[in-house]
Amino acid sequence: MNLEELNATATNERLAQAKKNHHLHVCVGTACQALNSEQIAKALQTALRQQGRNGEAEVKCVGCPGLCSLGPLVEVASRVNGGPTQPANESPADANHRTAVLYQFVKPEDAEEIIAHLGGEPVKRLETPLDQPFFTRQTKVVLENCGKVDPERIEDYIAVGGYQALLKVLTEMTPQQVIDEITRSGLRGRGGAGFPTGLKWGTVAKADPNRYPTNVPEGIQSRKFVICNGDEGDPGAFMDRSVMEGDPHRILEGMAIAAYAVGANHGFIYVRAEYPLAVKRLRTAIRQAQRAGLLGNAIGGTAFSFNVEIRLGAGAFVCGEETALMASIEGGRGTPRPRPPFPAESGLWGCPTLINNVETLANVPPIILKGAEWFAGIGTEKSKGTKVFALTGQVKNTGLIEVPMGISLREIVFDIGGGIPDGKEFKAVQTGGPSGGCIPAQFLDMPVDYESLAKVGSIMGSGGMIVMDDSTDMIEVARFFMEFCMDESCGKCIPCRAGTVQMHRILTKIQEGKATTRDLQILEGLCDLVKHTSLCGLGQSAPNPVISTLRYFRDEYLSKVKPG
Amino acid sequence: MPRTLTINGQEVSAGNEQTILEAARDANIRIPTLCHLDGLTDVGACRMCLVEVVGSNKLLPACTTRVQEGMEVHTDTERLRAYRRQIIELLFAERNHVCAVCVANGHCELQNLGIAVGMDHVRYDYLFPRLGVDLSHERFGMDHNRCILCTRCVRACDQLEGAHTIDVLGRGARSLIVRDMNVPWGESTTCTSCGKCVMACPTGALFKQGSTVAEMVHDVEKLAFLRAARERKVWNV
């Protein structure tokens, strides 16, 4: 498919959609699907037929619109004037937004009532306001299509400007120009560490595939690789899952652009097997993109070819670490290895490899289309753009949010999150999962960016954000995460393998009232050891939940240990 | 082109492909190691050889870090000594390392390191896991209680014998050295009974059957000899 054909597909799809006055978007993300949302979609369809209105409305299954705690969600987007035409420069998503109604806690038996009210007054008992801060305070870049497009139809993605960025890159830009654009945008890795993306791309582009010995399996022509890291494993985190489920084509487009920039012709998406829906939708998306000539050989009629394969994780958290992930793709035991050499120089089968997180790659197409300056205009000086967070824990609105970098924790927890339920007080927020720390109330007004979070002993991480109220036992929080790290340690290096076991043991002793102040000293010694001597990021960050709770909630520890 | 660097203040010259560990050895500077074995590839797993390099905010494993011109390396700081002692203590607490009744008593790298780091007691709780002893092989035995999971046997079997009979099962503290698909050693269909894994073992975990306390001496030098003989045709190491 070349640019003309792409534009024609987009126009056709938009015209087809414009024929309908009402668009019913049913969330079929994992959370809503677990609450029977596919039945809701079917019931809506049946009701449309029965009431003879299927000419004026369509039911569409979409990805996660974010407010998971109110699911299953159904959004009804209606056009005000009801005319069949639509301004050419307006995507259906914009048009739909003008008079949208969001229904919460929908059941299949509500379908008839919802359809009967189409075009009239909304069903009051199901309606939840769209002008609440949860929606108005967000800035959607990565998630702009989630909840809007049907993740299983490539035409729907093309209709909102999908694959335009890829064809623009292939026909108008050199690889170096793409890298420069990403560099100027200030995009940093969204997997947690925040490494500048443009710099990483540049390193892989310059890397010589012949410098290190390579061992590429037969049948794979590429001597450089692009990997999308979708091995999201932090407890309480589901950002990448939602993007993969809700907008899989965007990830493919981001990967293809990255591949063009670094000179790779083969890519892998590494997804954990616990995300079957994401895997299914990605598979569908790859097939559709190949058929449309947007993946595979001669993409868009150019000389560029790029193939993507999916690899499933087998349930090891450590396989989110890049060197362990590559070992896993190669078919080996998923254990990390020392760096250097970094994957950018010697990665998959010894070849230069670009490995980016799902969210990082999802940021790429809009940067190409709207420009580096637009992206750099969002966020703070050192942390550009937006960040998706999975907001969970003791907060009223739990779900998926996307906010500009630099927003304060207070805005996230109290405005978007709606504050703490049941009249309880805020105690701490945990960011970064088992690698992050607990941030107490005194830092609520701190801006959320890479540097600020690191300064208070946590990390941005991949985007898990767990809110805790004043009934939370912080030592139990630390113990939970330590148990997680202990179970997930691969066992290769001694500090992580044996150190996490001993730390967990001491935390358990504290909880059982059997620990002394000497145990606390030993615990702090272990934190220092494991943080500074472990082989990979898992071990190096495993003590963070303990260190940060010791720093801000030391009284809780001291009240539970005996002198000795 | 040779590189010049300083290790503990001493000027050292090294080949550009050499690791810090090799350069230090050539200069008679001892860096403690456990998972390293001459003749096998390095994995940087035991963290005993971590060194401080001026300008790097991370500690670097000497066995896998290549020398660089002007590098300033410190191998024996107070901080490193404290870490090494903690690591050795963690190992002693992890499984059942009872030297007095061990076949490798007096010939054990773990024991030697315990002495070298000044370990007079273990500050951590002994975990005393219940682990078995595999005596199903007619010539060799494996005592998991004394295994430190350094994977030297795994690498020797794979890289020098080419059998890859041995690998690691499970993860974390539940990791276990196994043969084939976790079968008793004597039932392994790929084991050639060459004994290279036994030569590679730093502790009393792998031993020749029939050896009693303090009788098991591991022939580690033979592995480096084999590699040098095969790859570089050097016959007198």
Q: Would you mind describing this structure in some detail?
A:
The complex is a heterodimer of chains A (564) and B (237). By secondary structure, chain A is α/β, with parallel strands linked by helices. Chain A has 4 domains: 15-133, Glutaredoxin (3-Layer(aba) Sandwich), CATH 3.40.30; 161-373, Rossmann fold; 386-463, Ubiquitin-like (UB roll), CATH 3.10.20; 474-558, NADH-ubiquinone oxidoreductase 51kDa subunit, iron-sulphur binding domain (de novo design (two linked rop proteins), Up-down Bundle). Helices cover 41% and strands 14% of the residues of chain A. In chain A, the strands form 3 sheets. Chain A has a 5-stranded mixed beta sheet with strand order 2-1-3-4-5. In chain A, strands 11-10-14-12-13 form a 5-stranded mixed beta sheet. In chain A, helix 13 (276-291) links the parallel strand 7 (266-272) and strand 8. In chain A, helix 8 packs across helix 16 (364-370). The longest helix of chain A is centred in the last third of the chain and has 18 residues, at 494-511. Chain A is globular and about 80 Å long. The N and C termini of chain A lie far apart (74 Å). Residues 82-89 of chain A have low confidence and may be disordered. Chain B is of the alpha+beta class and 237 residues long. Chain B folds into 2 domains: 3-76, Ubiquitin-like (UB roll) (Roll), CATH 3.10.20.740; 82-232, Alpha-Beta Plaits, CATH 3.30.70.20. In chain B, 25% of the residues lie in helices and 15% in strands. Chain B has 6 helices and 10 strands. A 5-stranded mixed beta sheet of chain B has the order 2-1-5-3-4, with helices on one face. In chain B, strands 6-7-10 form a 3-stranded antiparallel beta sheet. In chain B, a hairpin with a 2-residue loop joins strand 1 and strand 2 (10-14). Chain B starts with a strand and ends in a 5-residue tail after the last helix. In chain B, 43% of the residues are buried. The A-B interface holds A 316, 318, 333, 337-338, 340, 486-495, 497-502, 505, 522, 525-526, 529, 532-535 and B 43-47, 50, 58-59, 61, 64-65, 83, 86-87, 90-91, 93-94, 123-125, 127, 148-149, 151, 167-168, 170-175.
